[in-house]
């Protein structure tokens, strides 16, 4: 039986590899987010299926950016219907329906999490955002994109302004190493890469005297008061904060 130490070492190695492989891309992503903050604009975040876990990681959480607009459609969440979520992600045209309600503009940035990077919803969402002048940060896996059936006119790799490669292998599983069947890594890697971007945004923002809007835990002293100011600033622009 594999030990917890072995699993940790394997996961740690993969996180380190992803960080090293994406050093320039993470810095470019931080550039885009700093531009959003300076413009008092919004960071739109999107995904489908289990990539929505990464969207939840970006939104209204302690230590997270307050200027985040989560792009969400309930039929994309497996908890609302597992098989339906897969069908919905593959339905061409849904992205434009979602963007018709609220779309990023030239000062905004869209972050799309999609490990496979080939289904119509994430690809068309990225393409639609770029047509509207927004930059797109694509968090995907180049290996998975190359291996997956092509279901759209392009792929998320082709639509990204900045492409961050999670290095997740096709199928997502990581164990056993010889023939992976379990221990999927995309959620862990996506959260790790997002937090690397946030740390660079914070450090560079602080060095420039920029006030980076970050949520605080409501369970620490002063957290509710700090968050109230952010809610007052962003809740009219981000309905999910109300």
UniProtKB/TrEMBL annotation:
Q: Where is the SIS domain positioned along the sequence?
A: 33-207
Lineage top rank: taxon? Bacteria
Instruction: Tell me where the transmembrane regions lie.
Output: none
Classification via NCBIfam families: PRK02947.1
Name it.
SIS domain-containing protein
What is the organism field in this record?
A: Amycolatopsis ultiminotia
